[in-house]
Design goal:
This protein is an alpha+beta fold. The protein has one domain: Electron Transport, Fmn-binding Protein, Chain A (Pnp Oxidase, Chain A, Roll), CATH 2.30.110.10. It has six helices and seven strands, in the order H-E-E-E-H-E-E-H-H-H-E-E-H. Strands 1, 2, 3, 4, 5, 6 and 7 form a seven-stranded antiparallel β-sheet that branches. A hairpin with a 5-residue loop joins strand 4 and strand 5. Helix 3 packs across helix 4. It is globular and about 50 Å long. The two termini are 35 Å apart. 21% of the residues are buried. This is Pyridoxamine 5'-phosphate oxidase family protein. Keywords: Oxidoreductase.
Length: 156
């Protein structure tokens, strides 16, 4: 995907899958978990989480993470970013938490969610990540070629 397309895709409200190295020892694979995130083209990826959970501890230790988002509708597309944690804001700024809720929920649900989870304002922190490495794919061209070949094969 061209840069502008992949940044616009990442900025859309999708559930991301965060990956971080699991440093707890043994034969552990990276921790992979779904997250709400924020992103504006050219900016940083924002992820909020509880300051005491495993994800938070691993993010502090690794000081970097990956995030992958996808479109499950055909033609399939995805964007993956990886980079360093540039800042940890403790506690999460209320405006950021509110923006994330409104990004993923309709206005009434967002208000109810924010009220019901108001204690998280003192428990949650915010990780900021600067995207350094991007991977992306848009299978629209492949799907169009495949559809043309399939249509051609049915005309005989």
């Amino acid at each position: 995907m061209p840069r502008q397309d992949r940044e616009r895709f990442l900025a859309e409200p999708r559930v991301g899958v965060l990956g971080v190295t699991d440093s707890r020892g043994g034969d552990r694979a990276p921790l992979i978990v779904p997250v709400w995130y924020g992103y504006e083209p050219g900016g940083e990826v924002l992820v909020g989480t509880n300051r005491e959970n495993v994800k938070s501890r691993l993010l502090r230790t690794a000081a970097r993470f990956s995030l992958c988002v996808q479109d499950e509708q055909r033609p399939y597309r995805y964007v993956s970013v990886e980079g360093p944690v540039t800042a940890i804001e403790d506690p999460i700024p209320p405006a950021v938490r509110e923006a994330l809720a409104h990004r993923y929920l309709d206005p009434e649900e967002a208000r109810a969610y924010l009220t019901a989870t108001s204690a998280q304002l003192t428990d949650d922190i915010l990780f900021r990540m600067r995207p350094e490495r991007w991977r992306s794919a848009d299978f629209a061209a492949f799907a169009a070629d495949f559809a043309e070949e399939g249509a051609g094969g049915n005309t005989g």
